[in-house]
Write a structure and sequence with these properties.
This protein is α/β, with parallel strands linked by helices and 372 residues long. It folds into two domains: 14-226, Alpha-Beta Barrel (TIM Barrel), CATH 3.20.20; 241-338, Lyase, Ornithine Decarboxylase, Chain A, domain 1 (Beta Barrel), CATH 2.40.37. Helices cover 28% and strands 23% of the residues. It is built from eleven helices and 19 strands. The protein has helices at 14-26, 38-42, 46-55, 66-74, 93-97, 107-120, 144-153, 175-193, 205-210, 340-347, 351-356, and strands at residues 8-13, 32-36, 60-63, 81-83, 100-104, 124-129, 157-163, 199-201, 218-219, 241-246, 249-253, 258-259, 265-266, 271-276, 293-296, 299-302, 312-315, 326-330, 363-368. The strands form four sheets. The chain has an eight-stranded parallel beta sheet with strand order 8-7-6-5-4-3-2-9. Strands 16-15-18-10-1-19 form a six-stranded mixed beta sheet. A three-stranded antiparallel beta sheet has the order 11-14-17, with no helix packed on it. Helix 1 (14-26) crosses helix 3.
Length: 372
Amino acid sequence: MTASSPRAEVVIDLEAVRHNVSLLTARASGAAVMAVVKGDAYGHGAVPVARAAVEAGATWLGTCSLAEALDLRAAGITTPLFSWLDVPEVDFAPGIEADVDLGASSVDELTRIAEAAERVGKTARVHLKIDTGLSRNGCPPAEWPALVEAAAAAPSVEVVAVWSHLACADEPGHASVDLQAKRFTEAYDLARAAGLNPIRHLANSAALLTRPDLHFELVRPGIAVYGLNPVDTGDDLRPAMTFRSTVVLAKRLPAGESVSYGHTWTAPRDTTLALVPTGYADGVPRSLSGRMDVWLGGRRRPVAGRVCMDQLVVDCGDDAPSAGDEVVLFGAGGAGEPTAREWADKLGTIDYEIVTSMYRPRVRRRYLGDRS
């Protein structure tokens, strides 16, 4: 490893992103596709992923915060952008000037958007969010008529869409999905009765893949863009992220000697250890100690002992790895290597959390298939 070589890196396959977006676009029943690139594109890098998604057919991009949307505009991305959640102190004016669509979930939020639009002398494009049962962001049904009326009366606001978000779309057949769809339709009908003519968007990745009746005019795939499927549909989604490092040292360990902090693992036989300069400061959860494998030398090998802040140790048996050999901590899984989903299952979480946590100062990002 040279001074410029990373101790760990995530490799992002933009061709996999393009493949996934193309597949999702084909599954969208003619609806437009908004590729969600919030959270720095789920840890994959918002700007390169956004460009790849648009190249593959996405006609919208979605971010959570206005700052994320403005970063995309600063990078020269002109695709329609939607931003939906910010703190009360945010100034919406830069977003309106940059043609960023904004979410509004209350009359107060709508008023702040309208006032910002008046200051800059430009109409704000707004998506009104109805809470249909997720009970997070979104306007409560009892307050929806007031929000719709305020939006219809605001001269500096154009209502582009009515939208909501599903709680259990990743559990096909869950009764809440139909209930939320019913409430969504009722809210949309109220908006239409108030004289508005918005589009609708409700479907996330899971609903895009399992509920074509909920595609409406626009769908919002997130995790599926990155090749991770929240439902077992058999679709050919391709994970875009590989997390890798290298061997920096190999040595023999006699039987009976122990490894790493706490001596939680003792060699049952003479064995060869490979030292990998990657640990929990680089995104390898310490709680995977004793429960994880890596891909090294064409096969899975167990991590011996506790994961440390800066390193972990791999039991290679009688094989002899060399310094510089590649170590895959997780990848697409096609060759048998561990995957982000495997990590998530062992940790009792979801693969979203695994990939989004990979943006770390010591972990370099490298892109494959970058056409810029």
